[in-house]
Design goal:
single chain, alpha/beta, FAD/NAD(P)-binding domain, 3 domains, nine-stranded mixed β-sheet, five-stranded parallel β-sheet, 24 strands, 34% helix, nucleotide-binding
Length: 526
Amino acid sequence: MALASLVRRKAYLLSRNLSNSRADALKYSFSLSNFSRGFASGSEENDVVVIGGGPGGYVAAIKAAQLGLKTTCIEKRGTLGGTCLNVGCIPSKVVIGHGLYGEMYIKLILALLHSSHMYHEATHSFAGHGVKFSSVEIDLPAMMAQKDKAVSNLTRGIEGLFKKNKVNYVKGYGKFISPSEVSVDTIEGVSTVVKGKNIIIATGSDVKSLPGITIDEKRIVSSTGALALQEVPKKLIVIGAGYIGLEMGSVWGRLGSEVTVVEFAPDIVPSMDAEIRKQFQRSLEKQKMKFMLKTKVVGVDTSGNGVKLTVEPAAGGDQTTLEADVVLVSAGRSPFTAGLGLDKIGVETDKIGRILVNDRFATNVAGVYAIGDVIPGPMLAHKAEEDGVACVEFIAGKHGHVDYDKVPGVVYTHPEVASVGKTEEQVKALGVDYRVGKFPFLANSRAKAIDDAEGIVKILADKETDKILGVHIMAPNAGELIHEAVLAINYDASSEDIARVCHAHPTMSEALKEAAMATYDKPIHI
C-alpha cells in the first residue's frame, strides 16, 4: 500500500541522515567560513573550479554557484555540454573536466534518431494511415543541419545558465600544476592559472581503442564520426553491441544502410535483462539489422576504397572477411584523464584509469574531487549530473546522495529499452524469492490505436514484501515511461502501490499499472 511505502521511505531518510551526520562529525568536519574570496597572483581564487563542461561538469558548476560558491568552469572546446574532452570549468570550487562528449552525443543522437525515425515512418507506415506521397527522399545535408541547429541552441542555453548563475567560464584546456592550481591554455592562445580551494575533475570518457584499428573518422569512425557522415553508407559494420553501437546502427539502418553488428560477447547489451534483451534483438533483426555474436575482429584492411574486416569466432576457428563502406568502432569507453597532470599531484587511479574516490567524491588528494565517467559507476550523462550535484553539496557542507543501483538506463532506438533496478538474473543470483509481472503493449489500447504496440513491461518484486526490485520496459518512449518506476524504487514502493494509482486512459503508462497488477495479483486487460 502507498502508506506503507511512505513509512518505509521516512525511516530510510532518517537512518541515512543520522548516518551522514555521524560521518560528518567523525571524518568530514567542514565550515563555510573556510571559504575565502581573496586574490592570488595572476588569478582570482575560486571556491570551486570545475574542469569539464559536460553533463557532470556544467551541472556541478551551476549548483556550486547556486549554493553561493565562487565558481569557474573550464571547457576545452569553448562549447558547453557536448564535445569530448574539451571543457574545463573553473567555479568557486575547481572542477576539471573535458566531459562534453556525453552531453553532445546525447543531443546529436536524439536529433538523428528522431529524423531517421520520421523518414522510416514516412516510407514504411504513413500509407497505412492514409498519408501517401508520390516520393520520399533523404536530404542528408538538411538533416545534419537540423541536428547541428538543435545542438547549437541547446549548448548556447547552457552558456545562458552560466551567466544567469554567475559562473565564470574559461575556454581552454586545463591541467594541474598543484592540488589548488590549474594551468589553462586558452583557445585564444593565452596561458593562465586558475586557483581554487576545491577542484572537481569532470573530464568524462573517450572511445576505447581496439588493437590494430586506427580511427580516422572517415572510413573507420567513432560515434563522433558516425554522427557526421557526409553520405549514407551502403554497408555499415558496427563493432560492439552496446548502447551506442545499437543506437548508431539504428540511425543509419533506418536511412538505408545495410548494418552488421559484430560483438565478441554472446549477447547484445550484456547488462540488460535477458528476457527483454532477446525480444529487443528480435525487434532489431526485424528492422534488418544483422548480428555476428561471439565474434572477434582480427584484422582491418583500408588499402582499397572501402574497408575489409577479418573476423573469426571468439573461441577460435576459421576466419571470414566482411566488407563495408564505413566501420563504426563502438567497443566501449575509457575514462579520460590524459594530460591532466594527475601523477604530478598524486591522484590515485585503478588499473583501468578510473579515479578512486570515497563516498563524498573526494580523491586521496585533499581538495581534489572527481565525478562522472572518470570514476567507477555507470557511464551515463544523468549519473554524472547526479554526481555533480552531490559532490558540490558535500563540498558546501550539505548532504549529497547518489544510489547507482537506482539509476535508470535507456537505449534510444525504436522501440526504446529502459530499465531501473535489478535484472531477473541478478535477483536470482542474490537468492531472493521473487514474483514477476508482465504486460505486453499489444494489449494496451493507446499502443494499438497508434499502431505501435511492440514491447512489454516486466516488473520484479520481492515475494514476501512485494517491494519492487527491478522494472524493465521495451516500448516507444520507454525512456519516458521508466520514471514512474524510478520514483517507485527510490521510495521502496511495492508493486501494489503502483497498481493502486489511477492512470489516465488511454495511455501507454497503463501498461506499467497492468504489469504491477500482474505482479501482486492479476491484470485486467489480458
